[in-house]
Amino acid sequence: MASARDLAVASISAAVGAAAAAAALRFLSSYGASSAKQRSPPTPCAEHLAVNGCTAERPPVQSPFDPAKREGYISWDDYFMAIAFLSAERSKDPNRQVGACLVSQEGIILGIGYNGFPRGCSDNKLPWAKKSAKGDPLETKYPYVVHAEVNAILNTNHASAAGQKLYVTMFPCNECAKIIIQSGVSEVIYFVEKRIDNSDYVYVASHKLLSMAGVKETPTTDVTNTNQVSGASKRAVHCQVVKSGFAPDCHVRNALLARYAACDPDLAHAEQMFDEMPRPEVVAWTTMITSYRNRGRTFHALATFRRMLAAHVAPNRVTMVAALGACAAHCAVDTGIWIHEYVQKQGWEMDVVLGTALVDMYGKCGKVSDGMHVFSKMAKRNVYTWNSIIGALALAQDGKTALQWFSRMQNDGVQPDEVTLICVLCACAHAGFVDIGRKIFNLAIQGEYGFQPGIKHFGCMVDLLSRSGHLDDAFRVVETMPSQPNAVIWGLLLRGCRARGDSWLSEHVTMRLVELEPENASHYVLLSNLYAETGRWQEAQGILHWMKKKGLRKDAGWSLQIESCLCFPSEFGCDHNMAPPTPRLVVPIDVSKKPWEQKVPLHNRWHPDIPPVADVTEGELFRVEMVDWTGGRVSDDNSADDIKFLDLTITHYLSGPLRIVDAEGVPASPGDLLAVEICNLGPLPGDEWGYTAIFERENGGGFLTDHFPSARKAIWYFEGIYAYSPQIPGVRFPGLTHPGIVGTAPSAELLNIWNEREKILAETNHESIKICEVLHQRPLANLPTPENCLLGKIQEGTADWQKIANEAARTIPGRENGGNCDIKNLSRGSKVYLPVFVDGANLSTGDMHFSQGDGEVSFCGAIEMSGFLELKCEIIRGGMKEYLTPIDESGKQHFLDASVAYKRAVLNAIEYLSRFGYSKEQVYLLLSCCPCEGRISGIVDSPNAVATLAIPTAIFDQDVKPKRLSGKQGPKLRRLPDVLRCSSDGHLPVTQDPSGTKVASTVAGSQENVPIKGMVRKRTQLDG
């Protein structure tokens, strides 16, 4: 049964030779599936009253003491800054409009101004140019213009500027700074600096002058915070920025983004503004990464970091520190190691901030020795660096070493802080050092470290004492705390009581928890269990009856399966040996190098004599990295020229071969089966992008070459499990990552069979077997050729290379050894069984796909990418005798004529989706890689069959379901000839912002502009 949220385009055709017949369109909907959309439009009639005849309920009367009454109002700071932006609109400067507003300490506007020429000096006679073509400074604006700050101070109507605040849209230059100082202004609140790095000497001088004169400098992001600023306040300033013409300025955009990021709890407005940036710079990327990290959204932080790298934006130190913080919180050790290697390759100095971030990352990911190595290389260290290393040792339950480092820290003259004490007490708790912990805690209470312990320190002490069985002492610590103990403190004590079997104290502590959190059902369940354990059944039953009466119910527990993630013993109470093993890297890949330049050589042929590059033991977890199938010949850009001129005599580059042996070192033998389990897979860190392509007709074409003869390309960027493309905007879907090729080496006998079989096929069946004119001049099988042959360790030009190159089979098509099968469900957790034809099996992998549609209809139709596989192998001795082989009894290859029906289904889908603003090339590419499903859905009046293509509607930002029009069910489809015209002659259109910019898709027929969720797209005017 098709998915209930699928749009299915069906085509009926004969399965054996009959022509395609009439098409049908069906759509079913349900509420079960979750949507992949990021944002939903506001529901109609959401306003208060009478919008297009729809009314809403009157809002309830609000209390005058309700702080929510301030929501929707802008702050005074934003109000005065908006006035400055408003005044800037009066400026006639075509290059940059600047405004200023002078405000008294009582909030009274004293004067406003904008940049312009002096009174009586006409701009019809004076220049606005920033540079002179002749190099004459008198032909520029600078000798004549009066700055906005000066005009605001002069326009005060004799009021004094002394002690007042000046709001200005741009940080003042050194000349303005002199006047600001002389007039007595006490504070300058500015929106943006002209240069983000302050490298211009006039602004360096301005900062220096204002600092020396004691004038406070405040960026707008510092005068607001999350609790004080409403959405209306931020939008008011943003609105004035746009109206004043500042919006395109990258520095202004970065300042606005920083403002939204600082004030948005959920970052919704910051995300929207970031998405609207055409080409975000490193400052904008870093702002988003830092904001995600600070809000605990570490997955989004890492996904944004990878998107930045995929966009070829070079990170800076601040970016790396933010990304390392996310790696530490998310246990993303692979990304953290990549960052460390990047820093080393760039030759960056290991300063205290970057070094501390690395130490913290390694420590929280369980690689304490690596963190210590970084620590030893740092020239300068601060208290945060020491805290990171001590905290890492505490997490690793190495209390003795943690205390040694604590002593070293003090000997180096570094004063411990509150975090240091938490780390040390945790280390003592894990190691059972009760006396040492007491001593350190007492020293802190006596003020030895310059601060008084807080509630977290008391919690650590309670944990230390209760873990070691000193329950009475732990209870006294709780009772004598200077602040009221919270539920966490009582919970720590309760854990110790339960572990020691102290039922009386457990009951007492549980009662305290009930008093603190009377609505928490888990406390009552625990109390009931305590009564039951001591035989007090009536009281236990009474608790449960009382819970039922009050409607309290304990939430159901959840279990998590965490793959490829390090779980810390201190957090999960597990042994070190329970942490997932780190896979051994047997084939590393450097994407900056060509396939033949890799450290471990690659190959692109099947032959028994290609030597293995490594041995892998049965049951061992190992990692294989792979280039994309072209070996990096396709670029991350909007040009399809690399696809148009791609040399298709080159076939898939494979990693391997790998020799598989058992625990005794005996290799797999011919006749065995090799079970290959995919434990993990994904794109290579730092290379999270892929592409889908349509080949040129002359270069082989695709399934619909007659209709789409020209080369096209779509670039996809990966955001976690999701993919999105600027060339196909408004679409976002989860991928099912999988390898296109997993196979073993053929024997010499099998290789001869392949070559003979495919030679006959090429010579005799080329004209008799044509699938809907799809193949054109492309042969069904490519015979062996030395051209572009890569044979791993065998050097080109040698006698061995010449012999093997003339015999070796190309990687297309899939054969008895597995090979190029492109099975998209062969993903994480899958196991494939491959026959063994040579000693060691000689396993090879390649052709990684992030996602793939059924059929890969554009031929290069998956999202092709570089990637990695983490595998385990099992040798089934004699398995080929026990199980069926992958060939039939005749040894022949077969072809299905049902392709005719599927071709019509795909064409129907392209025609339908082109009505929603996409060009037909865009839909063609989309159907090749999105999670659609092509099926022979049923046999109708045999030998006829129904072929369907089901497309999940959740991947679209817009509603693509058929609409009810004029009382008719569904749209009225207009019949088109079989040969559809190509809807674009050039490269694919591109949007710089997938969520809100204009898409230019030139299509045949009359055109209209159709607004779709903030996006203007052109589409064909169709009937119905």
UniProtKB/TrEMBL annotation:
Domain of life: Eukaryota
Domain CMP/dCMP-type deaminase: 75-217
Entry-linked InterPro entries: APOBEC/CMP_deaminase_Zn-bd, CMP_dCMP_dom, Cytidine_deaminase-like, Deoxycytidylate_deaminase_dom, E_motif, FmdA_AmdA, PPR_rpt, TPR-like_helical_dom_sf
Keywords: Hydrolase, Metal-binding, Nucleotide biosynthesis, Repeat, Transit peptide, Zinc
Record-listed E.C. numbers: 3.5.4.12
Essential cofactor(s): Zn(2+)
Species: Oryza meridionalis
PPR repeat spans: 281-315, 382-416, 520-554
Classification via CDD domains: deoxycytidylate_deaminase
GO MF entry, a single one: dCMP deaminase activity
Region forming the signal peptide: none
Keyword Ion transport: no
Name of the protein this chain belongs to: dCMP deaminase
Pfam families on file: dCMP_cyt_deam_1 (PF00383), E_motif (PF20431), FmdA_AmdA (PF03069), PPR (PF01535), PPR_2 (PF13041), PPR_3 (PF13812)
